[in-house]
Amino acid sequence: MQVGPSTESLASSHIGHRYQVRSLLGHGGMARVYQVFDEITGHELALKQWHAGTHADVAAEARARKQSVAQFEYEYLTLAQLGHPCMIEVYDYGLHERGPYFTMELLDGGDLRERAPLPWRRACHVFYDICSSLALLHSRRLIHRDISPRNIRCTRHGDAKLIDFGAMLPMGFCEQVVGTPAFAAPEVVQGLPLDARVDLFSLGATLYFALTGKQPSAARDFSEVLELSQAKPPAPSRSTPDIPQALDSLVLSMLEPDPTLRPRSAFEVMQRLAAIAELPGREPVRVTQAYLSTPELVGRDAVLTRVRERCGEALAGHGGSVSLEGPMGMGRSRVLDVSALWAKTLGAHVLRARGGATAGSDRPLWHKLAEQLMAAVPRALGSELRKREADFDALFEDAPTHENTAVIAQGQRQIRLRSTRSTGLTRRREQLAVQRCLLQASGHTPLVVAVDDVHKSDAESIALLAELAQEAPKHPLLLLVTQDNFAADSGEHTHWQYAHHTQYIQERAERLSLEPLSREQTALLFSSVFGDVPNVALLSERVHTVSAGNPGAALEIAQSLVDRGLLRYEAGNWALPSSLDVAELPACASDSLRVRLAGLSSLARQLATTQALALHDGFTRADYHALSATDAE
After folding, report:
1. Are 430 and 463 spatial neighbours (Cβ–Cβ below 8 Å)?
2. CA quadruple 339, 341, 342, 343: dihedral positive or negative?
């Protein structure tokens, strides 16, 4: 992505009605990246916005637009589900008259073009981290396809992250030739199937540049790639004499024209970098968590397809309700997350909440939905809706901040939600105001109200959701909820109004059940987590027997095996045991949780329990001191 002046005027200073444009950071063939200020959160972010190319043929332009927008959505959806600390983090997705956009963290430390040449030990450390992110990407059978100095960017603290996944695709045949010619592998232009080694070539070329400040190839376009790749560049130590011979050998092996002569994996490159620079070889715990917390969503294709269809129907004005049901661990929350991401790419505004109290808040669920709606109203929902102040006056007032009062910053205005201590009559009036505002807002921007664990919600919020379920078919509004099978079918709550409204939602919602995974699907799940390593089939078979196809339970059992050292992750690769008896596994997921909790110190258990049950705002140093037997200094 090139940095420089844009032909587009920045006079239109807002994108997505909440992001104030500060400056243009860069632009390429498919997108522009801006530095923006989020007026809702007060944070500085980067915003990537798709823009159309130019084609003489109108039909060709329409096809190219559809393809590039789909690739833009694919980039966002994939990154939103990968949580690696060395990959750029993405946040919100939205539609704008100039094209879709998504926001991401702002990396303000420059890229490798500005920082090269690096001292060789520092280069090894940076590329060790980038290899770690590639190992996760490749385990998902994906390739980046455009690793280059401009796409490795640093924070102000010097940490490196891989960015710009706009060319990312599944491994295999790729018709379109993309990337940066001077850093592209020869097989990119040969029409050969692409695998992880195409990224390793580009990574080697980028490491060469990081060490020397010079490109390893003079290729200016893809027609020159094949010919120029046959001539190896001089060893990096020719430019920087202190570079060790082992690093020379690694870089040149990554630049081999023949893919079979390159290192086999990012894991191998990591090992060699660690040995050369005497790096510790242990990655942050967050890397292990990235594998276990963001596996491929297996066995849910039919459910996801149906939810996507219902989202499309809602955007067309034919709303409704969907209930995602299954026991704990079946992936209800994960399916809801993916569905919410899809809804955003389709153009809906998503209000997302979870039933039940959370640490630091005892506000009912309908308050949380009202807050999110108000955060969107000032710009995103238009001036006409803002004229309906009477509805909002029933809900919000200017008042001093006090306990149980939620504050929402909207530009220079402070709007405070009424205290939850209001009378039953006032609460009912407020709920009706929220309902009216939700329905009115959907007339301006289609809404998806996504509520996780609706069975844990308070009775008043369930009543509001039941009324939304009744009205949704007449509006561009989709109510998407998840609930436990037991709660849905047996009436876990005894309050008659709660049971009545829950039944009302069930009767009007399309109920989609999440079934246990088959043995084959569990094997796919574990392959997505651990990659193509020895003994993964044995592990999945044993764990499936205990988990009975529950994916959450399977991953919890895997985590317990990691904690016990039976599964080990080091330097980009998993090592699994060659033998594993069912008797060595926890009897169930809850047993593995008990074992993990038992491994904590008594103070850690006390603090965790207190935080889990707390209903007030975040803990202070004094709170921790009061809970502990010793000073927390």
Report:
1. no
2. positive
If you count them, how many residues does the chain have? Answer: 633
The DSSP code sequence of 567-618 is SEEETTEEE--S---GGGS-SSHHHHHHHHHHTS-HHHHHHHHHHHH--SS-
The residue type found at 127 is F
| Alpha-helical runs (H) found in 420-548 | 424-442, 459-471, 485-490, 496-508, 519-530, 536-547
Cα–Cα distance, 81 to 334 (Å, whole number): 9
Contact call for residues 502 and 464 (beta carbons, < 8 A): no
In this predicted model, what pLDDT tens digit does every residue of 315-343 receive, in sequence order?
Answer: 999 999 999 999 989 999 999 999 998 89
> For residue 297, which phi and psi values (nearest 5 degrees)?
-80, 105
pLDDT at 399 (0 to 100) = 35
Strands laid side by side in the 349-354 sheet:
349-354, 447-452, 477-483, 320-325, 510-513
Nearest to 352 by CA among 275, 432, 282, 454: 454
Supply 53's token pair: 């190319």
Residue 454 structure tokens: 């609706």
* Amino acid found at 149: P
> What 3-state class would DSSP assign to 22?
strand
Alpha helices in 152-255, H assignment, sequence order: 196-212, 225-229, 245-254
CA distances from 82 to 136, 188, 354, 524, 533 (A): 8, 25, 22, 17, 20
Q: Which two tokens stand for residue 239?
A: 């430019």
Spatial separation of the C-alpha atoms in residues 94 and 72, rounded to whole Å: 12
Residue-wise pLDDT tens digits, 485-536? 665 454 444 444 556 667 778 888 999 999 999 999 999 999 888 888 889 9
Phi, psi of 109 (to 5 degrees): -105, 10
* pLDDT tens digits, 164-176: 999 999 999 888 8
Report the C-alpha gap between 21 and 12 in whole angstroms: 8
In tens, the pLDDT along 391-405 reads 555 455 443 333 333
